[in-house]
Amino acid sequence: MRGLQWFNALSTGATAVEGLPASLKVADGVLGGQPVRFIAVVTDPDNRFPRARNGEVGLLEGWGLAKAVDDAIVRGDQRPIIAIVDVPSQAYGRREEALGIHQALAAAADSYARARLAGYPVIGLLVGKAMSGAFLAHGYQANRLIALRDPGVMVHAMGKASAARVTLRSVEELEALAASVPPMAYDIDSFASLGLLWETLSVSQIEQPTADDVARVGDCLLKAIRDVDGRDLNGRLGASNRAASSHVRQLLREQW
Amino acid sequence: MTDLLNKHSFVELGARQRARALLDSGTFRELIDPFQRVMSPWLSRQGVVPQADDGVVIAKGSIAGLPVVIAAIEGNFQGGSLGEVGGAKIAGALELAAEDNRKGIETRAVLLLETGGVRLQEANLGLAAIADIHAAIVDLRQYQPVIGVVAGSVGCFGGMSIAAGLCSYLVVTREARLGLNGPQVIEQEAGLEEYDSRDRPFIWSLTGGEQRFNSGLADRYVADDVAQIQQTVTALLQQGVPAQPRSRQAEYYLARLNALDATPQIEPATVRALYQGERS
Amino acid sequence: METLSFEFPAGQPPKGRALVGCVGSGDLEVLLEPGTPGTLNIQVQTSVNGAQLRWQHLFERIFQEHTPPALNIDIHDFGATPGVVRLRLEQGFEEIGHD
């Protein structure tokens, strides 16, 4: 419920955008005088797709996110887009695979990327889980990523149980490895060491943000918006734990 | 060795041979070739044997005279999974192709996708690289077609299935499978009744290349034949950018999903009728 | 995983280099490059532990038939059988133009 709490707290007084799936919360508001569009994926116990009722990013969510962002691009005002990220996973189900959930998530990633390329500052605010395909569709195309510092905030490619099964390890072995291999870890500090976050910050009550929490996060979002100086994702390169990513690009350029 | 070369199966070729087979004769030039040994900095320390090219081949050359960069994933190495190096090779190549276009050089891209998605030993760096690949496809696609080919036998899954969904055109064979989640993971997360990962005909009927093409989720359906794939890719490159890529059709797909009765469990024919029924 | 090193007497270095195989299940990748005259160096990274002697014997058998060219060979092995190792090495020698 963190995504909804933060959406509600940040978008107080904002105008809700209608005509989207109930699992999406979208509103146009103002942040310190700056007009912005807030977007969150939330739980919907009545979702027509049963595998997407707990905040997962499924078919309606992927296509709906695309619509919400396209809608902003069409307006042409370069109003910043704030993606509030609390997505436990993509939806795992037969309907989802059959109906092409990959295409729905592609649509969402496409729209966020096009918004960024069109000069809309896109900021991802991580308040809960940011898992795998769900994060690729909602947040990972942002110019700047901000994470709240909390054990419940985590970025990963796969849940621990599944990751253990796929890599033929026990959960204990996986955790031991994760402790020494930063990209495998589930905690936000390890993730930060990869250079992918623009900022991390602590709040007093992440589940039920106080007025002070909301003000501090709002401030940080504004700073991130002002910091956006380009339309690419190059700001994520440069950390020593992601040195190979820069090295490969340098070699490609030399040999191109 | 001559036996191998005389066969026309594309699926049987390795990543490097596939790239070579698509490019105009004599134009293949590999970037960061395996002898440069830019390998995964993460696998060895976890006791996993690395590969000299990290499972990704980047080759420049031409197709029908058009400047092209090919990124080919080797499905036999770690299931075609993408780690930091292989992911950066693909993202970086696409980024340079987009930069070429801004300078007036009309470089196109072809992605040969055989991949399970993120390499779990490099988890978050694989995921980050895939986000970079998505960003770069969307950027390059403004100027030139980005063509995805899923030939088989690994198929295309995880974050790279999203990349397939971003391509200007997607080419599949009967041997291809395309889906976000691997069958075992769905079974683990959703249960056997939802998805039986051992029921191969069931899985192929939902995610196989023929079904994807017949549902409008792929643009061309071709035989596993080098010449046919080469001709198809060439024709698509010559066709230029599509009017409206599939990933920009949110209104259409939302309307189709709204028309679906989602209560009963789904059948392949339902998907075909839903997505193709009202199209000319 | 283990990393092993071997050295054998050799002839002259070839001009070319070659890559054969893939680090796939039951297979191996072999990179062959010109080395110092008279010496064949082999580095093996293998997923199978405790097989130093088996590699040693296999190489000895292969190289006693013909003196190999002077090469630096890198092997990335993913559980290949001796038969597959021999096949890949022969392929590699063929591709660099020496039998």
Would you write up a description of this structure?
The complex is a heterotrimer of chains A (256), B (280) and C (99). Chain A contains 10 helices and 8 strands. In chain A, strands 1, 2, 3, 4, 5, 6, 7 and 8 form an 8-stranded mixed β-sheet that branches. The termini of chain A are far apart. In chain A, a hairpin with a 7-residue loop joins strand 1 and strand 2 (24-31). Chain A has a single domain (2-255), classed as 2-enoyl-CoA Hydratase, Chain A, domain 1 (Alpha-Beta Complex), CATH 3.90.226.10. Chain A is 41% helix and 18% strand. By secondary structure, chain A is α/β, with parallel strands linked by helices. Chain B is α/β, with parallel strands linked by helices. Chain B has one domain (2-178, 218-243): Alpha-Beta Complex (2-enoyl-CoA Hydratase, Chain A, domain 1). In chain B, 40% of the residues lie in helices and 13% in strands. Chain B is built from 11 helices and 7 strands. In chain B, strands 1-2-3-4-5-6-7 form a 7-stranded mixed β-sheet, with helices on both faces. In chain B, strand 4, helix 4 and strand 5 (146-150) form a beta-alpha-beta unit. In chain B, helix 3 (84-102) packs parallel to helix 4 and helix 4 (123-140) packs parallel to helix 5. By secondary structure, chain C is α+β, with helices and mostly antiparallel strands. Chain C has one domain (2-97): Ribosomal Protein S5, domain 2 (2-Layer Sandwich), CATH 3.30.230. In chain C, 28% of the residues lie in helices and 34% in strands. Chain C contains 2 helices and 5 strands; from the N terminus they run E-E-E-E-H-E-H. Chain C has helices at residues 52-65, 82-95, and strands spanning 2-9, 18-21, 28-34, 39-46, 71-77. Chain C has a 5-stranded mixed β-sheet, covered by helices on one side. The longest helix of chain C has 14 residues, at 52-65. Chain C starts with a strand and ends with a helix. Chains in contact: A-B, B-C. At the A-B interface, helix 2, helix 3, helix 4, helix 5 and helix 6 of A face helix 3, helix 4, helix 5, helix 6 and helix 10 of B. Chain A: GO terms for molecular function: ligase activity. Chain A: InterPro entries: ClpP/crotonase-like_dom_sf, COA_CT_C, Malonate_gamma.
